Amino acid sequence: MLTARNVTKNYSNLQVLKGVDISVSKGEIVAIVGSSGAGKSTLLHILGTLDSPTNGEIFINNVQTSGLTGTRLADFRNRHIGFIFQFHHLLPEFTALENVCIPGYIAGTRKSAVKERAAFLLDTLGLKDRLEHRPKELSGGEQQRVAVARALINNPDVIMADEPTGNLDSHNARELHQLFLQLRDQFEQTFIIVTHNEELATLSDRQLVMKDGKIVS
């Protein structure tokens, strides 16, 4: 489903990624682990098309994303890739439902269909009674679930998660771990997760260990 070949990334004279190869199957949860500075987040951002590689090829469902630019790239990213970050990045002036709907509206999907799917996702994630609440009225765990629903709204091929439990307490982190497993089983959702959380990494289908810009195991 996702394949990356010989991906490198340089910032001036600093080589952050040193020829990374990765292959992820549909419905797989893959955790990328390693010490700080190993290149995990850089790799995730490149796989998610938020950054471009210095060299190498990336394919998502046989589309070479490293060959897309401008509006074509932005449209592909919005339709095929979902993102979850450590900090939820919800827009404070909008309700939970409205926050989830935004990527669907950007994709040009009919508004009634977007709202229906957003309400379904929030219900599935245990937030049926929180649709009209703004972020400040939600707990940290609830805000992260809204962010998960937003990532799912366009039925993406893959969700990229960068330290998704890093801002949660242990209880909410454990609930989010179980939620990822539920989404994999219920929707065959694919996840690539950068994490320092050993429990989340252990629950994943596979762990990729990075060191000094390379996958070492």
Task: Describe what this molecule looks like in 3D.
The protein is an alpha/beta fold. It has one domain (28-38, 70-215): P-loop containing nucleotide triphosphate hydrolases (Rossmann fold, 3-Layer(aba) Sandwich), CATH 3.40.50. It is 37% helix and 26% strand. The chain is built from 7 helices and 10 strands. It has helices at residues 40-47, 70-80, 96-106, 111-124, 140-152, 170-187, 198-203; strands spanning 2-11, 14-24, 29-33, 55-60, 63-64, 81-85, 158-162, 190-194, 206-211, 214-215. The strands form 2 sheets. A 6-stranded mixed sheet has the order 6-7-8-3-9-10. The radius of gyration is 17 Å and the shape is globular.
CATH-defined topology: Rossmann fold
Structural class: alpha/beta
What fraction, in percent, of the residue positions are helical?
25-40%
Helix tally equals 7
Q: Shape, please?
A: globular
CATH H-tier superfamily:
P-loop containing nucleotide triphosphate hydrolases
Domain ABC transporter: 2-216
Keywords: ATP-binding, Cell membrane, Lipoprotein, Membrane, Nucleotide-binding, Translocase, Transport
Pfam family, one: ABC_tran
Protein name: Lipoprotein-releasing system ATP-binding protein
